[in-house]
Amino acid sequence: MTQVMKMAKISKVRLELPDLLGEKYRVKVSYKISFTNLEVQAGAKYRHLLTMIGDDTGTADGIFDDGHDETLRKLRDETITAQSTPISVAVDKGPFNASELDEDFGSDEIRAKVVVKPRPAFAELATAQRESPQVILP
pTM, whole model, 2 decimals? Predict the structure, then answer.
């Protein structure tokens, strides 16, 4: 049995959805990804995926939940290589119409989800995943 080693770490994920005039929003996400010396020395490669999620599990309104989160938009999908200094990620995208962030009836609850998954050559390394706190659009 292959032992999976937990390696890459994702700092607290911060999500902001500044309200622009006319029901438009910007999406701002920031976090850091750090690696161990072992990963750096091995030249470990990962798939780095950042998505916006429509949250339908335990939402604030409770009435319109279907129990399934929806992927609203992929913000990043790239290969990264482990490095000795943390990778700072700052995404600022938009504007998005409110309708593009509308994942259900009622209030819209949004999270940012970060996944750092090892490429096949480094399969013994574990996948790291972290989500931002939920943001509720007005």
Answer: 0.84
